[in-house]
Fold these 3 entries.
Entry 1:
Amino acid sequence: MSRRAINTLTLLAIVAGTVAVLPASAQTDGAKRTAEFPVKGLINERIDQINGWQPRLADKPVIQGVRRLVPADMSKGRVEMPVKSLLFDKFKQPAEASKARSVVVPESVAVPVPPPAELRLRAPAKTVGSSQKPSLKNRNEKVEPGKVRWHKMVQTAMDASKQSGKPVLLFQMMGHLDDRFC
Amino acid sequence: MFSDETVAKEINEKFEPVWVSVREVPTVTIDFGNGHKIKRTLHGNVASYVLTADGTIVDILPGLYERDEYVKQLNNLFWVHHYMPLSRNAQVFLADYHREQAQSIKTSGKALEVRPFADMSKMAIEISTKTILRPPGWSAGRKSGVKPVATVEHPDFSKPGELAHWRKLFDDTAINERERRGPVHAMLLAHPVAKPADVTKQLYREVLHADIDDPYLGLGETLFKDYPFTEDNPEDASRASLGVKHRASEGSQAI
């Protein structure tokens, strides 16, 4: 075999080898895309979930390790759909967002759905907590200070003591005995 | 306590009662930061003075008492007041009374009891502390079948009468009698024929540990001494932490 023929065969072999290696390149490329463009992966995943796609063993790519690339992810329509879904999620609370991913949202639903009642913005706590009840000051109205017949002033009690011969009982305190909360 | 029928009846029958406020009651507010706040008054700094008609102090019950002990102690003081004019010298009688009570509390932890109706005995006896004071527990020994009062840890305050069985009130009563009455007797012994205005500040500062001249009621040291964020403290906090005496607030009453 001439040198030329040998070179030609080698070249053919290299070309054949390239073709054979191509899936491996695709694997690398796919992994790279998944790794470097997590948003893509997210979009794919979202599309899958929205379409109700569940990975099955048969759906696994022939080449191990390659994530299933949704061919339609390059499609404009497909790319936009998750955006609508994301907009929808914006009106959800974080905890609710994961739940929302499993919800099948028709493409036609572009208008944000009102969040559930329990997730709606609540009124400020101030209006809930404090203004419902009157303050202590308001509640601290004057009351009858027990069943004891109190004199209004010390001097009055002392004058009464002179008359009755009874001792004076002077009750000293902080606050006021005739306050409801003293 | 003054809503209790027994207490009210005893006071109305035997005394000319009057109440005064020495200052506004301190309150504590906790803001939980979520719109919820609770506000509570700090109570307990009370004193019951028994006075003669001219305002001379016969004796003082410091702090809160449980119902039965309060009635018993008021009854004792009623009789001390009753015997004063019957003694040879009321001032000496009163001084002897405080001296013997202080001694009894110091040695036994309990005050002596006052014998009632001593002057109505068939045998005319000279009224003196020797003849009217009896050892602690004397009256209980004369009564048979007296059951100890059942106390409760957490009373239902919505039910009338539950407060009378509150264990904390009984604990406070015991502390008042064991630890506060003694200094009160010593103080009154040092200030014969004192009027309430003469001893109120000392009573609150030294016996009840709530200095009414101090805007922080003597708690300044506890509140400010080890608090690192001094910029949060009020201007007079540093003085309070050093225990500097504060000028009496204008609002506080003299009596």
Entry 2:
Amino acid sequence: MSTLNAALNASASALNAERTRIEVAVSNLANAESTRGADGKPYRRRDVVLAADHSFEKALGEAGAIGVKVAAIVEDNEPFQRRHDPSHPDADAEGFVAMPNVNTPEEMVNMLSASRAYQANLTAIGLIRELVQKALELGK
Amino acid sequence: MSTITDGAIMAALGRQLTKAVAQQAVAAGNLANIDTPGYRAREASFGDVLDGEIGKLALTTTSSNQIASPLPGVSGGTKEVDGLQSRRDGNNVELDRELLTMNKASSDFAAAGAALAAKFRLIRFAINEGR
């Protein structure tokens, strides 16, 4: 039973990680036009770094589930896009505005892939629950 | 007389349950890491263990009154899956393959569970003197 618990925990950790990816993609999309952040500069798009989490495995010997964790949320160092808009309050002397380095299609792809992975892990949780259910019916 | 005892069969069915659980857990781990860069898909491996156990399959008893000892439990590790195509980030987890593994493990578990339940029913039948 403990192995199934570990499998459930691993799947749950994946749900958490994929949710974080969706959250970050959403905040990137929301700030696609934010030209003034806390530091006065335009918003930089952020990316989630995932890493395998072996702490689940150690608890139960060799054949265990490996979870996943959010190792870091890093900022994208790509240069800002420059848009010609002289009437914008943040425009420079030449009339250009530095816009966030957010690429809408890229964020949409990230969000879709995260949501598919979320679904896959939900399916996995369903299958594990099925197994537990069957184990409970053994004595009948 | 050498017969395969109920105990041995039930132990074998129990090991099948354990095997299905291990496969399920490893596949869940793979699915959890479907987006982790550099992660390599793993599978539960029982082959080496089986090779070792096959030699012990012939249960030796010195007297017909002895009950043959059940086989030792399933123990196995995991190994990397060969022959999968890696994505550009070095990850080679395939969603359909893992879901297939989980579904297969689930039905293996159900099959062994049904057989075990049938065994339990027989024992209950014997305990109740055929009633």
Entry 3:
Amino acid sequence: MDNELSALTTIFTEFYYWITVVLMFLIHVGFCMYEVGVSRHKNHLHTLMKNTMLIPLVTITFFFFGWWIYWAFVNGPWIGTSIMDGNSGLQLGGGYGANEFADPLDPFMAVNLGDHISGVFWAAFLLFSWTAASIVSGAVIERIRTAAFGVLAIAIGSVFWVIDASWGWHFDGWMVKILGYHDAYASGVIHAICGGFALGVLVVLGPRIGKFAADGTPRNIGPRNPWLVTLGLFLIYTGFWGFYAACNIPIFDLGPEYGMEGVTYFTATNIYVTPTTLSGITMNFLLSLSGGLLMGYWISKGDPFWTYSSGLAGIIAASAGNDLYHPLQAMIIAAIGVVIAYRMHYWVERRFKIDDAVGAVAVHGYAGVVGLVICGFVLWGYPSSGYEGYAAINPIGMIIGAIIMFGLLGFLPGWILAKILDSAGKLRIPREVEIAGMDFNYMEASKADENAVVADEK
Amino acid sequence: MATITSWTEALPAGVTQIYPYVGTEWLWLLIAVVFWIVWHMKTAASETAEHDELASKGKGPSDYKSNVADW
């Protein structure tokens, strides 16, 4: 930084992403509160620890290899051609799979006076990774081993969602170039994949004891503490604001970037380096939240759990195109996504005996898939990028993208990993522990301490 | 060993990496990866032992209620 303007732009961008990271931290606070609120008293502490420990596990593995994956696999394997070259400063060197930029040993992966952006950009992606693992965490509460969940959290948070981001959430990703895939605020690249991954795990994990009657009729378990659930979901909404901002590049000159001679055009852009505004996406965020809440209240007949969850599902359904939609389009798309997600949840629960404790597969998975498909039709014909040679946004590309996200990179790895853990006897807690409650020993010790203190006080 | 001993010399020289022991990153990475793997092994074994011990108690679904502390 050798002049005031470039210094101001750089430091502003650095601070912008830092703020988004702090805001997104609230997503995780919200998820912890939400999961504890949904779990029963005898499982509270283990539920909390399971979700909390994904923070360090995903963080260190995202440092070891997650960030490297994002920059290394934009071309597939063996699909597409990178537009990154030496001029971009992001040249990966050595062909497919090579990546010096995000290597954990690279000078940029540390305090570096020559780079103010890598660390905060890495952190923004890391917070997306926490969210990815946390989405799965809620679905499997009260019967999964914490050790098994740790492995699954790393798989979804530091590997599989990062692959899909590299393919479809990167200005150089092959899905953007070839399929015309567009997913500005991650209906698919975070939500659909995590919903699919959770479903794959749930198929193997099985329901909690007592969830289904002998004739297969599902029973409702909880939420035990609706206030924790309420606060949790409000915090997730709040963190979602930060997520939307983090998906943007705050200030970028698209003139030279697109090769337009003599044109200077400063704007905010989305992750694909196509223009949008923070102002516009704020309207779309609020209208899609509102569409989701309105429809959720309607179809659930005022059930608070589903109304709050539908607000989230509404945002998720509209997120793929919320960089370009009109706010009223965002609202209607959100409402449609909620109806389909809600209906699908109960149909899958009854038909396949799937016990999704927090509705994560519906809110994130089904709503995300619906959002991708609708985006393909509503934004049909828009350029997916400002760079030359990219396919335009289209329904077929978006449907294929939805299948890749939910099925190929979500459900399939979740199912395979759960099968491996299950075959080793490491996936599910013993039946006796599930009946007694995972916190039984903690609670017993705490009660003994209480009795001892009271005895002394007497 | 300090990488920087004088800011007035380092900044004009264009020094960018300012953390200590530049060049030994691979060693820290190796230690961190070993710590990570061992953590998984130890905590998984501990969890299994805890489950085995709790399972052997044969507690019923409502037994935990007698252990709800009321501090």
